[in-house]
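Subgroup meeting minutes
Present: P.N., E.W., G.H.
Scribe: E.W.

1. P.N. recapped why we're keeping a running log of single-chain structure predictions: easier to compare across weeks, and new members can see raw inputs and outputs side by side.
2. G.H. added today's entry (423 aa).
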Amino acid sequence: MAMLWKFMRVARYSKTALPPKVRGILVHSRHSSSSKSVPSDFAASTPCSNTVELLGKSYPQDDYSNVTEKILSKVGKNLHNKKHHPLWLIKEQVKDHFYKQYIGRRGTPLFSVYDGLSPVVTVQQNFDSLLIPQNHASRKKEDNYYLNRDHMLRAHTSAHQWDLIHSGLDAFLAVGDVYRRDTIDNTHYPVFHQMEGVRLFSCHELFSNIKDVESFQLFEQGHRTAHKQECHTMEAVRLVEFNLKQVLTKLMTHIFGDGLQVRWVDCSFPFTHPSFEMEINFQGEWLEVLGCGVMEQQLVNSAGAQDKIGWAFGLGLERLAMILYDIPDIRLFWSEDERFLKQFIVPHICQKIKFQPLSRYPPLINDISFWLPSETYSKNDFYELARTIGGDLIEKVVLLDEFTHPNRRLVQRRLVTLRSAKA
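Output recorded in log:
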């Protein structure tokens, strides 16, 4: 699962020190591993019906505003920065691997890590900067959390790509909580955590190990094919693709162990070409773990790095943690139950952990029928209602039946509810 990278499918990242702020977002330096998180108790409030106060700023509401109090309560939780949380363990493993494997010319880590960037972004950052078309399905109001027409809760960490490249960075990892309206089951949650990786190369850097480097170029005036962009030379694309796949294979081997089988599936994203999904064979089953590709040169050029070519990837922390620790339900990551949290208090971030279930009580099942209120109604509207009332006790919502009357529609849904009693 490549999170929004997967949603973006059509078929099926130092030059100078980072300034104190990137487009108004507070970040930290290459030598720091985290930035100050905002406590969730003070993250959001709604002083009146026409504005939303979030992370110290006020956002006027309009016809696009659809963020619920339930979702606002999650902003600032920053599970990926909570020590010994399973998502923190995964983030630290990835960060530790990149810090040790890739060293810059001055002996410091090549990749900078940004794990405290604000989840509130502009629509331009989230979509336009990534070349996502105006009519693309990923922009729909029913699939995103909008504060208003201009601001939203980021749907992917890719929303920070342009700003970080524009600040002068060539290699970085961006980690954070992302928000998408989605179905209710054990693998989907409206808030999840993603890591974005970007690496840019100059001509000298990319061809440094090749003799007669002066005869090779990054760019040409050619034609777009299934294997390259019109402005890239085939030699440059082949080397960037090789480096990308090598970096990601080493990363997954570091996390899951030696002997890991990997395969690559061609796909399509608006912001990379060529694009790939990475699958690993874990315990006899092929599992998708991330999306990646050669960055669209138009994006790189617009951010001010016209003389460079690069790759990007996006992975979901929950996806990796559920596979590695055998956690069966994504909602468990939000649990404050000590029986869950204590299982991940380990002396070393790479220690093997197998999750132990918290309860053996069977779920409760309730079937309900109701008339849909209007033509603008979306199934995600019902999921939001269910989450607002039932919280994370709602394990699954299933459509059982529907009946269409000449003027309205009746649906029947099954709610599967967890029992919170201890085993």
